Amino acid sequence: MINTDCFKNKKVLVVGFARSGLACANLLYELGVDVSITDNKDCDSTRANLLKLKSSKINPVRNTTHTNSNVIVSNGIRVELGKHSQGFIKDKDLLVISPGVTNSALPIVWAEQLNIPVISEIELAWMLCPAAIIAVTGSSGKTTVTTLIGEIIEASGKRAFVCGNIGNPFSDEVHKMASQDFVSLETSSFQLERIRNFKPKISVILNFSRNHLDRHRDIQEYLDAKKRIFMNQDDSDFLVLNGRDPILKNLAGETKAKVLFFFESQDLNPNQAAVVTVGSILGIEKNTCLKVFREFKGLEHRFEYVTEINNIKFINDSKSTLVESTIWAIKNISSPVILIAGGKDKGVDYKGILDIAAKRVKEVILIGEAKEKIKKEFNGFLSLDEAYTLEEAVNKAYLKAKPGDSVLLSPMCSSFDMFSNYEERGDRFKKAVLNLAKAKG
Predict the structure, then answer these.
(1) Where a domain ends, among 66, 99, 116?
(2) Which DSSP helix (H) or strand (E) runs through 351?
(3) What is the full DSSP assignment across 94-126?
């Protein structure tokens, strides 16, 4: 790692104690930083993460309760669970926030009042990273493209670390990196909101559509967050943009970086075209990329075949949190579809699915907080039903399907109303399907 002394004698508060918060805390602890953690949830997952702290591995018996009953001390790391208190923040030099922490969260409000700097987890890891960073953002396709970029780099004989919003935090991997390595980094608008000097060698913006309006005030604020990916780049860096996206095409004049456009073709879908363009910058031959594409098995929770029960296929597309992603999934199923959709609304327009759904979808089973909104937009256009749980939705879908049909979980919504993340949602779907298969077996 580089710049390890920049946190010397600093008191740092990590806000959010899920995957990236845990990784940040462990990284800072290894650097000898005075680190604390705060999370307004006190639940099984945050309690489980206490045992994953590096400090707890030294002497877990020393986990004791602080004078504040919500604060636990683990060999010097103070962890506040179930609330945020202003006194826990006031003496800090820096806040590092997880992607799920909004600008209206109390620790952020208090930090700004106290003039305490606030950065995102990817900014922290970037400060320490010796490797070249390829940062990927966009409304959809980020996980696939980030994964494929890592694979073409590995196929060319170099070492790549695939991390970021993809599930493996950047700060969990940075200590393993060397100057000759590469980082393929998935970045969300949430992570980009709180960067300061973050400067990738290559930035990629795949597409742009209405999304995350449950968090951003409007679509312009969402676009502005995406644009931050290239704000520190200069003429030694590269910006890769979707040449068929009119909004992104216009960003070429707003950057100092060298701009390359990628285009979908008969041979390459948009994700593959973006990867080939990145490969060309890195000197990786197109044939190497094509070989990787042919051998790519796909990603868990992204159009993932689960099983077949009495000639009815079940497909897990839990990663789909956009209308555009669900449209793509439906288009790639040749049989009639029973669609399971819904979750936490992100402010998207669900009517965009109606044209393709009218031709391919027999029925929609709605779950989650967004079901009333979706029902209102779909009513009169599609046959609708509702379920209170994902397990109920799976059983209803099976009863409605006929041999030759496909049951598709493609929610068009985030998972945070019913699940901790899209992985848990996808795992629950697969478990329900496999339990059904056993019962029908």
Answers:
(1) 116
(2) none
(3) EEEE-TT--TTSHHHHHHHHTT--EEEHHHHHH
- Domain harbouring 104, CATH code: 3.40.50.720
Structure tokens at 202: 């290559």
What is the tally of structural domains in the chain? 3
> Which residue range is the domain that position 197 belongs to?
123-295
Distance CA 390, CA 431 (A): 10
Task: Return the number of other C-beta atoms located less than 10 Å from residue 440's C-beta.
Answer: 10
The three-point CA angle 231-348-221 to 5° equals 25
What's the pLDDT tens digit per position in 69-79?
Answer: 578 886 779 99
Query: Which pTM does this prediction carry?
Result: 0.86
Cα(212)–Cα(61) distance, rounded to whole angstroms? 42
Instruction: Tell me the two tokens of residue 341.
Output: 């959709």
Residue 3 in any domain: the answer is no
Each residue's pLDDT tens digit, 323-332 = 989 998 999 9
If asked whether residues 128 and 274 sit together in one domain, one would say: yes
Could you tell me whether strands 182-186 and 132-137 are parallel, antiparallel, or unpaired per DSSP bridges?
Answer: parallel
H or E element at residue 23: helix 19-30
Phi and psi for 143 in degrees, rounded to 5?
Answer: -65, -45
Q: What's the pLDDT score for residue 55?
A: 75
